[in-house]
Each structure stands twice: as C-alpha cells, then as structure tokens.
Design goal:
Layout (H helix, E strand, L loop, with lengths): L5 E6 L13 H13 L4 E5 L1 E2 L9 E2 L26 H10 L3 E6 L7 H4 L8 E3 L5 E6 L4 H20 L4 E4 L13 H11 L10 H23 L4 E4 L11 H5 L5 E2 L2 E2 L8 H11 L4 E6 L14 H13 L5 E7 L6 H13 L6
Helix pairs in contact: 1-2, 4-6, 9-10
The protein binds zinc ion.
Zinc ion binds next to β6 and α5.
C-alpha cells in the first residue's frame, strides 16, 4: 500500500444510533477528539436513513430548504430541525482540525412509500422481470423518482456548501440484482434510447444498463457542480455490471472516486478478492467502504469482531493497488468499543497511512 489521502470513519447524525434523537453535538465533539488522537483525517456523514434499516429513524438528517422535502425529514433526528441543527458548529471545527468532511445519501432509496407519495405522487420502485418490486430502491427512469433524487442532492449540496463541505457521495442510481428495471418507464426509456425491447432483453443488457447509468450519473455530477463548482461527487459501488456500474462507463461520468463495499457480506472474505476488485475498478481512484460493524441491521451481512477487523486491516496494508486512495470504516455509530480499539490499533501497527 502506498500512502493514502483519506483515512477515517463513516458516521451519521441518526443512522444506527441506538436512541431516538440520534447523535448530539457532544457526541460529535467526542468523535472529533478521538479521530485527531488516532491520526484520522476523513469523516463521511450519512445524512438519510430508511426505516427498513433502523426502526427509530426514517428520512433526511438535515433541515431542507426545498418545500417538497420538508415533510420528509426524520422527525426524531435533532439535526433535521432548524432549531436543534448542530452540524453547522461541528463541520467547521472538524475542518479546523484537519478533518475533511463529506455528506452522503443513498439517493433513490426510500422505504416508507406512504410518506414519499405525498410529495412525489407518481414515484416508482425498481421492478424485476418477474414483476416483483423492490421495497426500498426507486427506479431512476421514473420521472417523479428521478426528480426526488435531483431535489435531494441539490438540497444536500446547498446545505453542505454553506458549511464548507466540498465532498459528496451517493449509492444510486443503480439497477438491482435483475440487471435492469422492467417497469413501464424503463421499458419506454430503453426502447427510445437503444431501440431494444425489455420484454425480450438483449444478451448484453448489462452494457446498455451501464450506458444508461453513465447518462444519469453524468447528469447528477452536473447538478452537484451547478450548486458548487468545487464539489466532487463519489459513488458507493463495487462496479457490478448488474448495477449498471461498469467501471469504464463510470470513468466518463465525472464521478471522481469510487467507494467499493468491502466486508459487507460473507461473500467478501479474502485478500485476493480485495486486490482483484481494486484491479477491476482501476484506474478509478478508490476509497474502501469497509464494514466493521459489531451491530448489523436486520437480515444484513455479519457482525464483525476485533479479529475480523485486524484481518481486514492487514489485507489493506499489504495491497499493491495503485488506485487505492483511502479507507473509510463503517459505521462508527454501530461499532463495539473492542472493534473501535481494533481499528485504531490496526492503523497504528502498520505505521503511517496518510500522505
Ligand atoms: Zn423502472
């Protein structure tokens, strides 16, 4: 491993915070002290939560300006209300202490349809070929779903830019495990753009899906830069063709770095796998999105122990990948004291990680 640009945590004002109000200003002050003491320089904040992952929290974690988004805040989250918002104090303090901050949303994810329909009445979820609908991921070919995505990102970048934040990350648009969406809107889109019939999909559907994603992601980069010309947009992805995220297409979008999911599922369990993934994603710069949670959402992944954390840090430290530019440990709100200690000690045991 060469020297990295970014080493730090992903945390959140509310996601997986085990109480109703989410994190307070004091909680973040404690985290900043700890990060400085342990040589970390990067803090990415997850600014939206879905009720399917966290029973206390559903909605946006910042006070939006757009009237269509105002009803969609997480009412339990302190930072989502104008009167108790506190990241405007925390972000400048982090930056003064040498910590680069990022805001992230899953984008095109929403698991409480009864709330979203009040503002975006014709939104739609991804639909598999057998007609089964996703319960959380929205279809980017649906105009109301897409408008929601654009509105959310625009509003988040306005909020962040006022606080001096120039880095943003998203996870979607993507097509699901079916490799495409088969709703009426997607069928129409693919007919119009590629002259193909999704009722009888072509062999190379993943290529066409990636070209469609290239167009959508290029538009989102434009949306971000129209609000803040200095801003960068990063993408959480392993570059799966099924998602429509072929690395060669992502390169053309203006997305400036990828954050591949590492260690989120049991299927990810070898050093060679990590290096193969980085090679596949090259030359896109990568900041690893490493799950070191000891507490997992329902039916998701596996809980890590300190030995798992030490093993992963060893793989990263030995990686020869030239496109490896950083490491983000996830999720700071759901790690045991033992895993936290393993992260900090692991970083120390391999010497200086940062440039
Ligand atoms: Zn669709």
């Amino acid at each position: 491993m060469g020297k990295l640009k970014y080493v730090g945590w992903m945390s959140s004002p509310h996601y997986q915070v085990p109480n109703k109000t989410g994190y307070t200003e004091d909680d973040f002050n404690r985290l900043l002290d700890e990060m400085v003491d342990n040589g970390m320089n990067f803090l990415s904040l997850h600014m939206e939560c879905q009720s399917c992952y966290d029973r206390y929290h559903d909605g946006l974690a910042w006070p939006p300006r757009n009237p269509r988004l105002k009803p969609l805040i997480d009412r339990n989250c302190l930072n989502a209300h104008e009167e108790s918002e506190f990241l405007s104090h925390i972000i400048p303090q982090a930056q003064n202490r040498g910590i680069t901050c990022q805001f992230m949303i899953n984008s095109l994810h929403w698991s409480s349809p009864e709330r979203l329909v009040s503002q975006y009445p014709n939104f739609g979820y991804l639909k598999a070929r057998n007609g089964e609908e996703s319960r959380v991921v929205l279809c980017p070919d649906n105009s109301d779903s897409w408008q929601f995505c654009v509105d959310e990102i625009t509003d988040l970048v306005k909020y962040g830019t006022d606080l001096g934040v120039n880095l943003y990350a998203i996870e979607s648009p993507f097509y699901g495990h079916s490799g495409c969406c088969f709703c009426e809107d997607s069928r129409r889109t693919f007919k119009e753009k590629f002259d193909v019939d999704l009722g009888n999909p072509p062999y190379d559907l993943a290529i066409l899906g990636s070209l469609r994603m290239q167009e959508l992601l290029t538009e989102l980069v434009r949306v971000v830069k129209a609000t803040n010309a200095q801003a960068e947009l990063w993408l959480h992805t392993q570059g799966s063709p099924k998602w429509g995220h072929l690395p060669s297409c992502l390169r053309k979008t203006g997305i400036s770095a990828l954050m591949p999911h590492v260690y989120h599922s049991r299927q990810f369990e070898s050093e060679k796998h990590l290096n193969a993934l980085l090679d596949y994603l090259a030359p896109n710069p990568c900041i690893l999105h490493c799950c070191v949670r000891s507490r997992m959402p329902i039916d998701y992944g596996w809980a890590k122990d300190p030995e798992d954390v030490r093993k992963l840090i060893g793989w990263i430290a030995r990686s020869p990948a030239e496109n490896l530019e950083g490491v983000m440990f996830f999720n700071e709100t759901a790690v045991s004291p033992e895993n936290r200690k393993a992260v900090y000690e692991g970083l120390r045991s391999y010497g200086r990680w940062l440039e």
